[in-house]
Amino acid sequence: VLGDLTQPRYATAATIVARMKASVPPYNSQKVRRAIQQAVDNEIVMEVGIAGLGEVAENHHVGPMHPDYAAIGSVPADQKSAAAALEEAGHKDTVLDLVSVDDDWRRLSTDAIAAQLLDVGIKTRRTIVSESVFSDSWKRFPFSTTNWNPRPLGIQVLALAYRSDAPWNESEFSDPEFDRLLNIALATPDVEARRSTMALLQQRLRDSGVIIQPYWRKLFRSASPRVKNYQMHQSFEHHLEDVWIEPV
Fold first, then answer.
1. Parallel, antiparallel, or unpaired: how do β-strands 96-101 and 124-129 relate?
2. Cα angle: 31, vertex 32, 38; to 5 degrees
3. What CA–CA distance (Å, rounded) separates 227 from 224?
4. Which whole-number Å values give the CA distances from 3 to 7, 222, 224, 225, in the listed order?
5. 209 near 36, Cβ under 8 Å?
6. CA dihedral 186, 190, 191, 193 (to 10 degrees)
7. What's the pLDDT tens digit per position in 53-109?
8. Which of 86, 104, 169, 172 has the fewest CB atoms below 10 angstroms from its CB?
9. Are 116 and 39 in contact (CB under 8 A)?
10. DSSP element (H, E) containing 178
11. With a cut of 50, which residues of the chain have pLDDT below it?
């Protein structure tokens, strides 16, 4: 309750990813990408970026709100392994440039990622650009954060964002085995039957290290306590057919 208002909240598939362009050095090395991913505690990013108003994610862009989500568990941050792996890959002195748009929660979330990289000795520069610059250039940045709006099914996100040569594949992730499994999942309409293939896809995407996906955002709206059954929808839709106002 905020004052005399209620705030229905909904855990959505809206999120942010820090993605590395797999075609651009040093991010063309899986070992480098995994080191960067392992250095970041997703819960810290959620606390700093959105004041904890979300659910911690698992670095594979499919969540419990998706009917076809497979529970493969989370992987805790491992800062010691991250620093050692980056040094082993020959990039101890490489300076990463992490880019974000200048718009509060995305900027703060990216700051939290950069701070953790610096904490383990990964040299990182923070570049913050205006909305107009980001809109023109977001797909070209080698390492940047982008927000993703929700999709009803996890398989939709994977097909849209991580299939080889997909138009929205901003990380330029390309894995023939991932694409093969994706085709199997897309051809399996029953979500229960699809889940075993989703588990393989989620694991393969996370192991690639192409994204740090720290959290799922909760969205909320405010209303008088007299407004009953007024729910938040992840697509900001208004379904008022079941809403009523309690008489005074």
1. parallel
2. 85
3. 6
4. 10, 10, 10, 10
5. yes
6. -90
7. 999 999 999 999 999 999 999 999 998 899 899 999 999 999 999 999 999 999 999
8. 104
9. yes
10. helix 176-186
11. 1-2
CB 10 within 8 A of CB 220: yes
DSSP string, 199-244: HHHHHHHHHHT-EE--EEEEEE--B-TTEES----TT----GGG-E
Q: Which of 21, 11, 10, 18 is nearest to 214 (CA)?
A: 18
Structure tokens at 160: 């849209």
Helix, strand, coil percentages in the chain from 3-state DSSP, rounded to 5: 35, 20, 45
What 3-state class would DSSP assign to 92? coil
pLDDT at 8: 59
Concatenating the DSSP letter of every residue in 107-168 gives HHHHHHHHHHHHHTT--EEEEEE-HHHHHHHTTT-SEEEEEE---SSHHHHHHHHTSTT-TT
Tokens 């070992």, located at residue = 31
Q: Other C-beta atoms within 10 Å of 73: how many?
A: 7
How much is the pTM? 0.88
**Angle between helix 154-161 and 176-186 (nearest 10):** 140
The amino acid occupying position 201 is L
Q: Is residue 142 within 8 Å of residue 94, measured between CB atoms?
A: no
What tokens appear for 93 in the block?
A: 């002195």
Rounded CA-CA distance 107/103 in Å is 6
Pairing state between β 54-56 and 215-220: antiparallel
Phi/psi for 244 (5° steps) reads -145, 165
Q: Please enumerate in sequence order all residues whose Cβ is within 8 A of that of 248, keeping only pairs 6 or more positions apart, or say none.
A: 226
